[in-house]
Amino acid sequence: MYIGADMGGTFIKLGLLTDDLRPVARLKVPTESMTSSGVVMKNLLAGLHRLMTENQVTPNDIQAIGLGVPGQMDIQHGLSIASPNFSNWANVPVVTTVQQAFHIPTFMDNDVRVNLYGEWQFGAGRGKQDVLMVTLGTGLGAAMITNGRMMYGTTNSAVELGHMNMVRHGGRPCACGSSGCFGRYVSARGMVATVSDHLQRGEKSIVSQWTAGDLSSLTAEQISTGYDKHDAVCIETMRETSEMLGFGLANAINLYNPARVIIGGGVAQAGERLLGPARAIVAHHALKVAREACDVVPAELGPWAGMTGAAVYAQVRAVQQAGGADN
After folding, report:
1. Element (H, E) at 24
2. Is residue 274 located within the same domain as residue 294?
3. Which GO terms label this protein's molecular function in UniProt (predicted)?
4. N or C: at which end does the chain have fewer Cβ atoms within 10 angstroms?
């Protein structure tokens, strides 16, 4: 059996899967991401223990554990170097901590890559050898499988589309130190910032009533609802976001030449409000040969994709390790 765990900013989602990666149990526990690395790791260990105890399995029954962790990492040494989703989190020995607690081979990868592993094996990427996944949540993440292999790059940071510069002058500042980054516009945080820009220009919107003027509580789902209620600011925000998404995807299709682009994450729940106009821009601005060989589709596995993909990754790494391969 395998265990997959997706370490999100709000919840850690865990699953127990059979040797052929069929899920038999799953649970989620609070991450408490704004506390410290010690608290988050304690919650992860408690969740793993609970998952095994409730399903009457022991560490001896588990072949490997896979972990999806947001942010930059040293995969070979099992270190989470930094994460935008967790406070007081730097150079955390995630893999060593889990292995010492349970004595089970444990493997860690970026959360977007494990999402793609899940979609590639069991979701929207089945049967494709060249697949790009873009996740639209609080921020924007991406991962790419090319010729049937995950792309990593020299520092395990390949396909950082969220930091692709899309606004050359006067762009929104980004935590990476640059400005105008893709993820500062096409994400939940980006959509809220776009609404705020319109309100600061004196435009009126129903979201001001919903949030009592405190936009920190505004969600992408509310913006979609405002769109459906014909709110002018929400309609324009969706238009600007989908336009930026379309140009970003056109760039990515030209760069990576995928057979399929999968759009996942909470913001993707906007559906065709967001994806329809983005596809139209891709059709006009991506290279003809590349775009005609590629489609843009929503993810299929929903909020448990990361957990499933982490188990897939655990199996892949366990098999590689048994065969003496590094990656």
Report:
1. strand 23-30
2. yes
3. kinase activity
4. C
pLDDT tens-place string over residues 114-146: 999 999 989 999 999 999 999 988 788 899 999
Decide: helix, strand or coil at residue 30: strand
Does residue 283 share a domain with residue 165? yes
Residue keyed to tokens 């969220």: 162
Domain encompassing residue 10: 2-116+303-323
Domain count, the chain: 2
Residue 122 lies in a domain: no
Assign residue 236 the CATH number of its domain: 3.30.420.40
Sheet containing 149-150, strands listed edge to edge, beginning at the edge strand earlier in sequence: 149-150, 140-146, 131-136, 260-264, 295-298
Q: Using the Cα atoms of residue 182, residue 187, residue 192 and residue 194 in order, give the sign of their dihedral.
A: positive
Is residue 326 pLDDT above 60, yes or no? no
Considering the entire predicted model, what is its pTM? 0.85
Give the other-Cβ count within 10 Å of 76's Cβ: 10
First to last CA, the chain: 21
Q: What is the dihedral of CA 98, 18, 141, 13, to 10 degrees?
A: -60
Query: What are the backbone dihedrals phi and psi of residue 293, each rounded to the nearest 5 degrees, phi first?
Result: -100, 5
Cα→Cα distances 12→45, 57, 271, 282, Å: 10, 20, 25, 35
